[in-house]
């Protein structure tokens, strides 16, 4: 049924794809991080137009499906005269989508800081910038971390979708292997699931450890 | 290439037909997730250590791997064990199982939130185990989590485009077919996005109304 020789054929190809998967996760996570703060701050802006634009961004990216966004960037943009290479389309879709979810994390964490903290900062004659930098953000950041960790795991799982727009990530490698050695489909996809698990599970454990550490001394 | 309203009206009937498939896939997989999630929550509370341990492992594994790969696994591996599944069946099973692991956590939080006194009162009144669950615990556990379940229905709705990868002709693959036949992707794929946006927005308003009617605080149930 299962012979070791099969894995010698499958594993190298999947590991090659794993490299792309990990790279894509890291790059889109960096993009998502910046987008999260940009949009999150934008939604708390004093200026109404900025708030509206940022809210529209969040509603659009959260309200349509990630795969639809990916296809839109890959199939529709070229027809509007903007041609993106596949990997850039994948990176943008993943980063902007996760960024929209991340901006909610940023916004709610900042709003979770007790009012007294802000009042105290004003009483100490701090500028708005100082208030944000040295009082609000350090505290809000602790609240954000576990949620960002969960988002990173979602992002990693989301990268598998780019296999559908011809990027040769780990899932793409598996579907290619399947067309060449159909009789070993169970081994190919079984191993693929295990590899994803091995990458994602340490992240899950890390998030839990963070949650425990950050909640010490708080009820 | 600019937006053509004529073309939009021309393809609208086809897309609305495909939307029916998307909605039925959403409803069926949500029902599977509702039942599966409850079963997983029970199995996890089981006194049989092995059962609760295996269930815990299963939940962790499913939650840490991509739903798209799980769909491929079910759709392409089942035939190797003599089981031919239609794209729809494989799709709703895949999505249903994936989200049942999320819902099991939601149920668990709901069950844990029922005050201990309720259990004690049920014992004092000599209720059987099944009576206690069906009449006392579950009704009180599920009521507060209804809005959270509603949110997951919306999340699952937005995951259905993945089923296009296992050859189900739902909304997104219908749009792709129109695109490859007419060489116009702008209208079909944009419309798909608009459909999802409208439906998920309307549903989220409904969920919010439910929430305010049930007057609960869903802190800690969903991140």
From TrEMBL, chain A:
Family designation: Belongs to the binding-protein-dependent transport system permease family.
Topology of the protein relative to the lipid bilayer: Multi-pass membrane protein
Localisation per UniProt entry: Cell membrane
Transmembrane segments: 20-40, 52-74, 80-101, 188-210
Swiss-Prot/TrEMBL keywords: Amino-acid transport, Cell membrane, Membrane, Transmembrane, Transmembrane helix, Transport
One Gene Ontology cellular component: ATP-binding cassette (ABC) transporter complex
Main location: membrane
UniProt-listed CDD domains: TM_PBP2 (cd06261)
Entry-linked InterPro entries: AA_ABC_transptr_permease_3TM, ArtM/GltK/GlnP/TcyL/YhdX-like, Ectoine_EhuC, MetI-like, MetI-like_sf
Name of this protein: Ectoine/hydroxyectoine ABC transporter permease subunit EhuC
Any one Gene Ontology BP term: amino acid transport
Residue ranges of every copy of the ABC transmembrane type-1 domain listed in the record: 18-204
NCBIfam families: ectoine_ehuC, HEQRo_perm_3TM
Gene3D superfamilies: MetI-like (1.10.3720.10)
Keyword Transport: yes
Lineage: Bacteria, Bacillati, Bacillota, Bacilli, Bacillales
Record-level Gene Ontology MF annotations: transmembrane transporter activity
TrEMBL record, chain B:
Keyword terms: Amino-acid transport, Cell membrane, Membrane, Transmembrane, Transmembrane helix, Transport
Transmembrane segments: 20-43, 71-97, 189-207
GO biological process terms held by the UniProt record: amino acid transport
Record-linked PROSITE patterns: ABC_TM1 (PS50928)
Organism: Polycladomyces abyssicola
Domain ABC transmembrane type-1 positions: 15-207
NCBIfam families, per the entry: ectoine_ehuD, HEQRo_perm_3TM
Gene Ontology molecular function, alphabetical: transmembrane transporter activity
Coiled coil: none
Protein's name according to its UniProt entry: Ectoine/hydroxyectoine ABC transporter permease subunit EhuD
Topology term for the membrane: Multi-pass membrane protein
Subcellular location(s) of the protein: Cell membrane
Domain of life according to the entry: Bacteria
CDD domains: TM_PBP2 (cd06261)
């Amino acid at each position: 049924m299962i012979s070791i020789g099969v894995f010698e054929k499958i594993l190298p190809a999947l590991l090659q794809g794993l490299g792309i998967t990990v790279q894509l996760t890291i790059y889109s996570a960096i993009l998502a991080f910046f987008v999260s703060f940009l949009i999150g701050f934008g939604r708390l802006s004093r200026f109404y137009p900025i708030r509206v634009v940022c809210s529209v961004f969040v509603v659009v990216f959260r309200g349509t499906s990630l795969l639809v966004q990916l296809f839109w960037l890959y199939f529709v943009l070229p027809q509007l005269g903007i041609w993106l290479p596949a990997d850039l389309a994948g990176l943008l879709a993943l980063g902007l989508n996760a960024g929209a979810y991340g901006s909610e994390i940023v916004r709610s964490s900042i709003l979770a800081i007790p009012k007294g903290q802000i009042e105290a900062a004003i009483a100490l004659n701090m500028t708005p910038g100082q208030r944000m930098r040295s009082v609000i953000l350090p505290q809000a950041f602790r609240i954000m971390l576990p949620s960002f960790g969960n988002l990173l795991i979602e992002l990693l799982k989301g990268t598998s979708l780019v296999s559908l727009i011809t990027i040769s990530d780990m899932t793409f490698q598996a579907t290619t292997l399947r067309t060449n050695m159909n009789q070993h489909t169970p081994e190919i996809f079984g191993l693929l699931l295990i590899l994803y698990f091995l990458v994602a599970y340490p992240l899950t454990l890390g998030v839990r450890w963070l949650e425990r550490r950050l909640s010490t001394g708080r009820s | 290439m600019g937006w053509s309203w004529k073309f939009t009206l021309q393809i609208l009937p086809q897309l609305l037909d495909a939307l029916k498939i998307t909605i039925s896939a959403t409803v069926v997989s949500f029902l599977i997730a509702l039942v599966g999630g409850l079963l997983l929550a029970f199995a996890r509370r089981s006194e049989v250590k092995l059962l609760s341990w295996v269930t815990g492992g299963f939940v962790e594994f499913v939650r840490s791997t991509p739903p798209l790969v799980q769909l491929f696994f079910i759709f392409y591996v089942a035939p190797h064990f003599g089981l031919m599944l239609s794209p729809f069946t494989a799709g709703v099973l895949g999505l249903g199982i994936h989200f049942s692991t999320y819902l099991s956590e939601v149920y668990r939080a709901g069950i844990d939130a029922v005050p201990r006194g309720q259990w004690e009162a049920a014992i004092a009144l000599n209720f059987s185990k099944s009576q206690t669950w069906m009449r006392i615990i579950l009704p009180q556990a599920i009521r507060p989590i209804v809005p959270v379940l509603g949110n997951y229905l919306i999340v699952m709705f937005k995951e259905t485009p993945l089923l296009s990868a296992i050859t189900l002709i739902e909304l997104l693959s219908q749009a792709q077919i129109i695109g490859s036949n007419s060489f116009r992707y702008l209208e079909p794929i944009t419309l798909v996005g608009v459909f999802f946006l409208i439906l998920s927005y309307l549903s989220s308003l409904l969920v919010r109304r439910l929430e305010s009617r049930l007057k609960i605080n869903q802190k800690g149930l969903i991140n």
